[in-house]
Amino acid sequence: MTERVYAELPGRGVLEVAGEDRVAFLQGLVTNDVTKAGATRAVFAALLTAQGRYLFDFFIFALGDALYLETEAARLADLQRRLSLYKLRSKVTLADVSSRFAVAAAFGEDAPAALGLAGEGAAKAFADGIAFVDPRLEALGLRCALPRASGFAALETAGFGRADEARYDAHRLAFGVPDGSRDLAPEKALLLESGFDEMNGIDWQKGCYMGQELTARMKYRALVKKRLLPITIEGDLPPAGTPVMLGNDEAGELRSGRAGRALALLRLDAAEAAAKGAPLLAGSARVTPDKPGWMKIEP
Q1: Which of 7, 54, 200, 225 has the greatest number of CB atoms lying within 10 Å of its CB?
Q2: Which superfamily, per CATH, for 5-174?
Q3: Mean pLDDT of 104-113
Q4: Which of 193, 218, 215 has the alpha carbon at shortest distance from 203?
Q5: Domain boundary assignment for the chain
Q6: What is the spatial order of strands in the sheet that 43-48 belongs to?
Q7: What is the average pLDDT score of the chain?
Q8: Where residue 221 falls among pLDDT bands split at 50, 70, 90?
Q9: pTM above 0.85, yes or no
């Protein structure tokens, strides 16, 4: 891809976390170091169950005297409700400000450079909103939260053409990056099976957070037996949830996909067998794991 384009992401919303205790409040709950989110940096993080299972993931950025969580719009109210359970006496307020912000992804050849940014998470004020390099993987490009009233004219002025959401979806699938609950089953998925370590979604040096114990145990005891892997598909794309079979044994499950490319949660031994030529099938389609360069799988 050589041209620079942007795609509005109508399925994304923004939750405002304001008040003097906003940093300490989130710091005790989420997987990344919230103190690093500021005017020049955004971070990627998740909220887990007490048992270390995935609930929500989001980008955290700062504007003025508030923090903002960019997350799935359809699940934002549930995120707000769950965070409210932990407020207790913390001086924080939670507000859905999705009507104020529109979210877009801007990508293409060296897209961050168009706004003078470089490095995962690098951020700057932009058009009365914010633009930041995707903290998960710089090659994904930029995320932008801009005033809904003015739209994305500033991106077009910066040289980005308009594209549809499907084009961005194909872009992130090409890099094997998951898309929230489309790829991670809430209350079931585990972060270390889902690439959060390599995607800068976990800070191993920060203090305690919800679900930390299981997450740390999986890392330091090498308990990861499955991974969410990108795959290529020969044949028609089966629906999400289709079992992936290695002979008569279930080896995993298909997740989101588009145009011959998808993600699947696979047993590592099955992925290794496929690398040696054993066929993996999802329905009648043959699937081939294709580990991206950013992904590190411990032996």
Answers
A1: 54
A2: Probable tRNA modification gtpase trme; domain 1 (3.30.1360.120)
A3: 96
A4: 215
A5: 5-174, 225-299
A6: 43-48, 54-63, 66-72, 12-18, 93-96
A7: 95
A8: confident
A9: yes
